[in-house]
Automatic annotation (TrEMBL):
Name of the protein in its database record: histidine kinase
Pfam families hit by this protein: HATPase_c (PF02518), HisKA_2 (PF07568), PAS_9 (PF13426)
Enzymatic reactions: ATP + protein L-histidine = ADP + protein N-phospho-L-histidine
Listed transmembrane segments: 292-316
Keywords: ATP-binding, Kinase, Membrane, Nucleotide-binding, Phosphoprotein, Transferase, Transmembrane, Transmembrane helix
Gene3D superfamilies from the UniProt entry: Histidine kinase-like ATPase, C-terminal domain (3.30.565.10), PAS domain (3.30.450.20)
Source organism (scientific name): Spirochaeta africana (strain ATCC 700263 / DSM 8902 / Z-7692)
């Protein structure tokens, strides 16, 4: 056959660019066959518009060794090599697969056992592209070659991978959030469900029907679900409903919230479901706890009310008791005041009787004894008078009591007018019983000083001091500048007055000291109460 190099073949039906590889392969094979029937050389096909000007990558490959026999301009542009360079290369130089795989696929294409393949090809710039190859054996110059159309599917693969990643993310999101989605095809009665919806409903072994899915909700919700679906389709109300289901695979009761919309053009319903069982159980638990908490608060309030009522009753009883005690105390005070008043009157009577008795006595010794007795009774009379006047029967002022007592004792004796009495008495309270003993003690020591420290009408001074230290130790000191106590006389002597002083000091749990230096000093120390 003589080559017709000047032949320019144009299909009667020009093919648009970027048709699918299968269609182009069929058209190309048809054109090649037509050219061969017409007795045209294959080189005329290679010069045709379909081969030279198309953007589809075309290669002619020798199946015996994989050598590239011919490459169209689109192949040179795609791979980045000049056509002459490509035609000196082997498909193994482009395909990163191993040689056995390449030979096996070339053999399958030659035998027409398989004509569609996917490989990764390396371009001239060393970048990798995912390609889909359609190969078909044809006769050229009495030899078989593989006519191959190469399609770049890298972006398609990336898009498919991205789509798969998005699908996995959606499934993961549905799993985390306990969501799922579904589509009711009303014309066919079938249901499409996502993995999340399958998991929530416990569905297995698709495909599923609408009737099968509608059996999952509990029976008491069926009428409400049907009514909501009918209202959605008729456009009366949106589909937003909560219900419970018995999951198919394990029988668990789940709380479901579903929202859907109706596509009238496709006559289908798209919806989502949310398994909010955990939230519902938590809400129920919260309501139960809240109920218990409110009950506990009411019980606590009732208990507090009872406690308050009990406290009010106790306070009322205590006030009544306090009023009773105050009434009894007032009665006791009145009785004590009456007793002290009577004791005071009786002591005044006794003093008067002693004075009358002394006036009738001829013996001076007897008169002195009666006067001393009268003075002792007078010291007791003073304290009862103070108790009666103050109304305080527990404690009295030491200063107030001793000031009155010492001046009254001095006025009892005629010789007392020649004696200067100086007092320095600290004002502090003292127990009445203790002060009673202190008063008699003071009376004895002061009387003794007035009678015996200044004989022969001698004038003199008597100093009386009383104080209390920080450690609550009381001290009474009576000092005169008289002739002094004889060395032979001791406080524990045989005289009645000194014996009485010794007894009183012991009753006060105190200690008596006597100093003889330009007179006599009696110092008594005892714990004050």
């Amino acid at each position: 056959m003589k080559p017709l190099r000047s032949f320019y073949w144009r299909p009667r039906c020009p093919l648009p660019e970027r048709k699918t590889a299968q269609l182009i392969l069929l058209c190309s094979l048809f054109c090649i066959a037509a050219a061969q029937v017409a007795g045209l050389d294959i080189s005329d096909w290679q010069a045709s518009q379909l081969y030279q000007q198309t953007s589809v990558v075309m290669l002619l490959i020798d199946p015996t060794d994989g050598r590239i026999v011919h490459a169209n301009p689109a192949a040179a542009e795609f791979y980045g090599y000049p056509a002459e360079t490509l035609e000196s290369m082997n498909v193994a130089d482009l395909n990163i697969a191993d040689s056995d795989t390449i030979r096996r696929n070339i053999s399958a294409a030659t035998k027409r056992a398989e004509n569609q393949f996917r490989f990764t090809h390396r371009l001239a710039d060393n970048s990798l592209r995912e390609v889909e190859i359609y190969s078909w054996p044809i006769e050229m110059d009495s030899a078989t070659v593989l006519f191959s159309i190469v399609t770049d599917i890298t972006e398609e693969q990336q898009a498919r991978q991205q789509l798969e990643q998005e699908r996995l993310r959606l499934e993961r999101a549905e799993e985390i959030a306990s969501f799922g989605h579904w589509v009711f095809h009303l014309d066919t009665g079938t249901v499409e469900v996502s993995r999340g919806a399958e998991r929530i409903y416990g569905l297995e072994n698709p495909p599923f029907t609408i009737a099968q899915v509608q059996k999952v909700p509990l029976d008491q919700y069926r009428a409400a679900l049907d009514r909501a679906m009918a209202d959605l389709i008729e456009g009366n109300a949106p589909y937003d409903i909560r219900f419970r289901i018995r999951r198919i695979n394990d029988g668990n009761i789940r709380h479901i919230h579903s929202i859907a919309e109706y596509d009238a053009a496709q006559n289908r319903i798209f919806g989502i479901i949310h398994d909010y069982t955990s939230e519902a159980l938590a809400r129920q638990d919260l309501q139960r706890r809240t109920t218990w908490f409110i009950a506990a608060i009411l019980a606590a309030a009732a208990a507090q009310l009872l406690i308050i009522l009990g406290l009010v009753r106790a306070i009322w009883q205590r006030r009544a008791a306090e009023q009773h005690v105050r009434r009894m105390v007032r009665e006791k005070d009145m009785l004590l005041r009456e007793v002290h008043h009577r004791i005071k009157n009786n002591m005044g009577t006794i003093m008067n009787l002693l004075s009358l008795q002394a006036d009738t006595m001829q013996s001076q010794e007897a008169v002195d004894a009666l006067e001393e007795s009268r003075s002792r009774v007078g010291s007791m009379l003073v304290i009862y008078d103070k108790l009666y006047r103050s109304g305080q029967y527990g404690q009295l002022s030491v200063q107030d009591y001793l000031e009155s007592l010492t001046h009254e004792v001095r006025e009892t004796f005629a010789s007392g007018r020649r004696i200067t009495l100086q007092t320095d008495i600290q004002d502090f309270p003292m127990d009445a019983q203790q002060l009673f003993h202190l008063g008699i003690l003071t009376n004895e020591l002061l009387t003794n000083a007035i009678k015996y420290a200044f004989p022969d009408q001698r004038p003199g001074e008597i100093h009386i001091t009383a104080s209390r230290s920080a450690d609550n130790l009381a001290q009474l000191e009576i000092r005169d500048n008289g002739i002094g106590l004889p060395e032979t006389a001791v406080p524990q002597g045989s005289g009645f007055g000194l014996e009485l002083v010794d007894i009183l000091v012991q009753q006060l749990d105190g200690r008596l000291q006597v100093h003889r230096n330009r007179g006599t000093t009696f110092r008594v120390e005892f714990p004050a109460r």
